[in-house]
Amino acid sequence: PLPVRPPSGCPAGPPPHANLLDRGDPHTAFGALRATEPISKVSLADGSWAWLATRYADIRAILGDTRFSSDPTVPGYPLSGMTGGGNTDNRGFIRRDPPEHTRLRRMVTREFMVKRVEALRPRIQRLTDDLCDAMERTRERTDGPVDLVEALALPVPSLVISLLLGVPYDDHETFQRLTGTLLARAVPDAERAAARDELRDYLDRLVTAKEAAPGDDILGRLITEQQRTGEITHDDVTAFAALLLIAGHETTANMIGLSALTLMRDPEAADRLRRDPALIRGAVEELLRFHSIIRNGPRRAATADIEIDGHLIRAGEGVVVAVASANRDDRVFADADRFDPGRPNAQHHVAFGYGIHQCLGQALARVELQVVIGTLLRRFPAMRPAVPVEEIPFRTDMSIYGCHALPVTW
Ligand code: HEM
After folding, report:
1. Which residues lie in Pro residues bias regions (predicted)?
2. Which of 91, 189, 276, 408 could form a disulfide with 95 if both were Cys (CB 3.0 to 4.6 A apart)?
3. Is pLDDT at 83 greater than 70 in this prediction?
4. How many CB atoms neighbour CB 314 within 10 A?
């Protein structure tokens, strides 16, 4: 049952739902809210509250309306429990509004365009094959289970984004550890702040080195084309690096883990995809819809009084836009709680957000998922979890859902 005591500072109105956003499986509660109270109030970890939107139509209305700000310094922005906590200094364009958002995003859009990303497919395939070879060798050597997260799900997107940005992959233990701390919700603020400073210092040194010798990569091009012409500063380049590095590996890594698990547990679907690989594209959209790994956001602050579905959201109030709930809305997706790799409209999901902040890296995420899933189905038809599902450590403690580890055997 949802607790009914409103947190301090909560105005009169329906009681907020405490801890809803801290659950591993929020779908039952989201479903109940969609049916009875689609715009409700939710309490956040620090005792503050925000509006919680759960229906698809309302969520598109909010994300499509730039009067809802992405800027965490705007009054009412619900920061509590967010990635990176209350960090607002030198933030990337994901947390900025137009015109700054437009100006900065435009500097990197072409890097992530479908055509550009499609050209990377053979390279992503080779890299995936190499990691699968290594998995086979590990299995032969140890005869024990292999952790699919460590062996494949994390390295593929990490290697790809390091390569694109021009960040040495040899440093992956550093940036993966720091990103992990930044994304953990249970970590004390001091520890998270220390991780943020360490990542900033690391990227600061990296950008300084690249200023002396910019390579043929995204950070190199930002330096030669934008920084040297005075469009952006050293700190802006560092902010680009932090945003793209964090957004570019944790998200896809978690989708790979959950997708592999889903297909291992649904052999019929896996067989269908193996027999007809042309279906993998659609299946990836369904996996994105079904899992919607961003479970407690995105978030916005209203900069005007705006009516959504009969509720007045006032200027200065925060909104949690539950894309994970929108993707389970039966008004749009028939029998939405069912995983159906052949679902005809799966691609209408909002797992990548909607509106001007819609995921910049979505074409890249799609190619990575298509390649990795296709390869796993082909090369490891007998792969299965090495432990009962209850023993898989799911990321209920993180702001991006997934598995911390996924022991598999075959
Ligand atoms: C934005 C999800 C992979 C880079 C977003 C947003 C979502 C999202 C929901 C919107 C945030 C908002 O509206 O406030 C995902 C998921 C991924 C994924 C589910 C993987 C399955 C990637 C990758 C990159 C990336 C691989 C690579 C660079 C970004 C950036 C933004 C963004 C830069 C900010 C866009 C803006 O504010 O204009 N992502 N993402 N993402 N994502 Fe992704």
Report:
1. 3-17
2. 91
3. no
4. 12
Using the Cα atoms of residue 343, residue 346, residue 347 and residue 348 in order, give the sign of their dihedral. Answer: positive
Angle between helices 234-264 and 155-165 (to 10 degrees): 160
Asked whether the beta carbons of 128 and 236 are under 8 A apart, the reply is no
pLDDT tens digit sequence for 199-238: 889 999 999 999 999 999 999 999 999 999 999 999 999 9
**CB of residue 364 inside a 6 A radius of ligand 1:** yes
ipTM topping 0.95: yes
For residue 384, what are the β-bridge partners?
A: 409
Asked whether the beta carbons of 407 and 283 are under 8 A apart, the reply is no
- Does residue 256 have its Cβ closer than 6 Å to ligand 1? no
**Contact assessment for residue 52 and residue 368, using Cβ atoms and an 8 Å cutoff:** no
Determine the distance separating the centroid of ligand 1 and the alpha carbon of 125, expressed in angstroms.
22
CA of residue 350 to ligand 1 center, whole Å:
11
* Residue identifier of the C-alpha nearest atom 32 of ligand 1: 359
Q: Chain centroid to CA 382: how far? A: 29
3-state helix, strand, coil in the chain (%, to 5): 55, 10, 40
Identify whether the C-beta of residue 316 lies closer than 8 Å to the C-beta of residue 334: no
Which protein residue's CA is at the shortest distance from atom 13 of ligand 1? 357
Q: What angle do CA 405, 409, 410 make, to 5 degrees?
A: 145
